[in-house]
């Protein structure tokens, strides 16, 4: 089964596509650019949602739901935001089909049902939400508003890739409103920290926190903060963004509040989001040529138990033990599968659960029953060991914790090896071509230089790291002075 | 605060709208027919989702996600389904906006970005899902497929009402595929039972299970099963449907499987759904002129603690006790709010939580501290009693259970009083006009009679109850023979 997956060394892109398909995570649909998220892929998304939703609620946010459609006049109110998304918007122009007189039994768009004003299918919801906040906010007592939405959005991408870039994707978008700039900035940074913690603690994926250059900023934001992760092919992936919107949307939608002194002020805003793209990041951060490697905290199945048997009698004996173990593990809150299918060989099952990234596999055969043991295999290192039946239940949670930590440590080590300083443009290009990864280099701060470097090397400024040290230097491209290094990479 | 809500006796429709708005559940958006579900309303939906999702998973279903858009040629493949929804479809025709040369800073639909094939925004997902199932199903080993989707759908309704009928709504739609007709019918009925159990156990809303007449069937189904509830104004509300699709979608999308004997057969299907409409049903089933009455199992806040104090010192003492109680209740898994806002009077807070339907209110004043007591008030009956501080924590869960049961019993008693038999058309009309509710009457089984009764009385056949007894009689309209009574009502 593993053999059907292209190896990473042969073709990393194809490995990714093979893995997404063979592991039953997602597939392309017959609708241009839109994917079907299959049950196994969706169950990973559900795990992500649960963890994130709790983190949002623990930081005082509540969920709500706003319309899918945005009238064009509302959409265009914040001009930079509108301009940024205009080229990738799906537009609803009609609200009815009718029978096609020329094709019996078939339908056509009813020209009499043309909308007076076209509706944009949301590519993001700032416009619809701030037009609503205008009605909700009158006084400082109405602030802050700390609202999140779980939703689907549409961005008409021309080149799509499962999870990483699709016309429709699922995400959460937080939209908050505040009385002061300082409070909004604090919220922006808090949510960046929440994302970083989620990426590192749950996804076992180390990230670099930073702020985007002007050219990479969210359209309509004053500042865009981001977390950037490193994939195994040395390319970067933006895993989440948190935007300080200033008063831009308050200006566009005239959202004002009366402050404690009775004066009218404009409201300050933030927005922040992560999407099903994270599933792509999760795959590319940890998986190998045999399939997925999932961190236990996001694995839909923690433990699979595979019986090894020659006849019904053996299976019956093993089943009793296996079901006992499964029951005890489930009491600990773990998700356990006992795969007692009789028509498939153990080797086939082993390969299947390696492909699916199940962190721990327990195999039980007749000899194990005699010896009072089981074989425990971990997916991340492929190590196996014989464990006594008496202690297996008590050891699993520790093993899962160990796997979670090991996957993180491995990814961190890899990432650290992939951060290189460059002090000349020649070095910069050499590193990108030969080693890949992140390159820390001085930049003169101009959009012009950023654009030229991008055109010539396909590397973009991923972020200006929040922990960047003050350090005087010269821009690798223009030689002009610079006071800190920024993080470049080729990216997804 | 309560006074701002129109009373049910004055104008039931206006009472409903007032309540939805004043209790901060939802509001109309600036997008025609689309609502904004506000945080408090959404938190009820989250409670519903959690309970239903668990019930779906406990019956072997998994979640997945399919595209929002359906290409027109795919949409029209199952002709009856397409015809049924054609008149209420939002249609995407373009994929880009561009700068409007006549309106600087504004946008227009780019005529060069017209889609070759229009996309229907899903009103329901049978078409897109069965076109996908075709790829997933080859053998009997691939069956059954038991998949659910949580999603938004669009049906272009001309007259909308918050929660009950909106252009966009949130729902879940189950879509299953089976090897035999019997298995698909069993699934259809199982999910009807799940919906009935959810309605009765969680929503505390008794329902009548039945099957729809041909005229009320889901377009593309062989049979539509439903649960019907009774609202306080004597009108019925369809609260959930479960459809046996036969092989209709397998025929439309050529979905076949090889059976155990190696022969090709068409796949059998079901689909079933409930939506945010249930929030409307929940409101109309239980609430009163002072606000929401929420069953504890779906209440976002179970208990509110309101301190009664004259000064900071009193508040401090009360807070210690209140926070102790809150902590203990939270350990039991309850959601508790301690409302220590200093600028609002207790009476205002009492009214607010009555409006919001919080099942239990605990008030603590200085005299309570002296006496070692608290005042506990239940929302459903408005009864108050003094409880000792020592026993309040241990009594709350029992009180919540009692409230859940009482709300159900009350609704059941009301519903039972609202089911009347009619044996003549004159009686039938009289009951509808004077008493309302469900009317059990004989019907000749023809669409013609059903249509005439609907035109003349606005009453529709809600369902043929599953527990209808065989009983020979004469159709109230045509006098033709009938072998069982069906359930009529005016309905939402």
Overview of this protein structure:
Chain A is of the alpha+beta class and about 500 residues long. The first copy, chain A, folds into three domains: about 1-285, BirA Bifunctional Protein, domain 2 (2-Layer Sandwich); about 305-400, Rossmann fold (3-Layer(aba) Sandwich); about 420-490, 2-Layer Sandwich (Translation Initiation Factor IF3). Chain A is built from 14 helices and 27 strands. Chain A is globular and about 80 Å long. The mean pLDDT of chain A is about 95. At the A-B interface, strand 2, helix 2, strand 3, strand 4 and helix 3 of A face strand 2, helix 2, strand 3, strand 4 and helix 3 of B. Strand 5 of chain A pairs antiparallel with strand 5 (about 90-95) of chain B, so a sheet runs across the interface.
List keywords for this structure.
Rossmann fold; Translation Initiation Factor IF3; 3 domains; eleven-stranded mixed beta sheet; 492 residues; five-stranded mixed beta sheet; alpha+beta; BirA Bifunctional Protein, domain 2; 27 strands; homodimer
């Amino acid at each position: 089964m593993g053999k059907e997956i292209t190896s990473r060394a042969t073709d990393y892109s194809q490995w990714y596509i093979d893995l997404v398909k063979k592991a039953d995570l997602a597939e392309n649909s017959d609708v241009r650019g839109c994917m079907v998220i299959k049950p196994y892929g969706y169950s990973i998304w559900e795990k992500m949602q649960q963890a994130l939703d709790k983190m949002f609620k623990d930081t005082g946010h509540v969920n709500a739901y706003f319309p899918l459609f945005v009238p064009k006049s509302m959409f265009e109110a914040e001009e930079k935001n509108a301009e940024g998304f205009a080229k990738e918007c799906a537009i609803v122009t009609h609200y009815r089909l009718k029978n096609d007189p020329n094709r019996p039994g078939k339908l056509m768009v009813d020209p009499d049902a043309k909308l007076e004003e076209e509706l944009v299918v949301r590519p993001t919801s700032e416009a619809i939400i701030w037009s609503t906040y205008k009605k909700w906010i009158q006084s400082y007592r109405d602030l802050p508003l700390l609202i999140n939405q779980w939703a689907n959005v549409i961005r008409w991408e021309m080149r799509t890739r499962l999870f990483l870039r699709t016309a429709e994707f699922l995400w959460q978008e937080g939209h908050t409103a505040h009385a002061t700039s300082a409070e909004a900035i604090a919220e922006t940074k808090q949510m960046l920290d929440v994302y970083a913690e989620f990426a590192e603690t749950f996804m076992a994926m180390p990230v670099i926190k930073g702020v985007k250059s002007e050219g990479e900023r969210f359209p309509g934001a004053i500042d865009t903060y981001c977390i950037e992760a490193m994939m195994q092919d040395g390319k970067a992936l933006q895993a989440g963004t948190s935007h300080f919107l200033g008063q831009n949307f308050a200006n566009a939608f005239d959202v004002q509040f009366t402050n404690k002194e009775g004066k009218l002020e404009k409201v300050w805003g933030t927005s922040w989001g992560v999407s099903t793209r994270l599933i792509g990041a999760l795959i590319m951060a940890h998986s190998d040529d045999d399939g997925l490697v999932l961190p236990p905290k996001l694995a839909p199945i923690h433990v699979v138990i595979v019986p090894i048997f020659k006849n019904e009698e053996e299976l019956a004996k093993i089943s009793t033990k296996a079901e006992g173990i499964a029951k005890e593990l489930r009491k600990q809150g773990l998700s356990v599968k006992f795969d007692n299918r009789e028509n498939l060989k153990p080797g086939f099952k082993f390969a299947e659960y390696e492909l699916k990234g199940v962190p721990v596999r327990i195999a039980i055969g007749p000899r194990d029953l005699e010896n009072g043991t089981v074989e425990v295999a971990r997916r991340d290192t492929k190590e196996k060991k014989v464990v006594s039946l008496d202690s297996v239940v008590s050891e699993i949670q520790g093993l899962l914790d160990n796997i979670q930590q090991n996957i993180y440590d491995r990814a961190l080590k890899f990432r650290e090896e992939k951060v290189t300083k460059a002090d000349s443009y020649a070095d910069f290009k050499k590193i990108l071509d030969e080693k890949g990864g992140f390159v820390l280099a001085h930049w003169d701060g101009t959009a012009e230089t950023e654009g030229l470097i991008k055109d010539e090397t396909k590397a973009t400024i991923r972020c200006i790291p929040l922990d960047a040290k003050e350090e005087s230097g010269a821009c690798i491209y223009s030689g002009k002075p610079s006071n800190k290094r920024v993080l470049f990479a080729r990216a997804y």
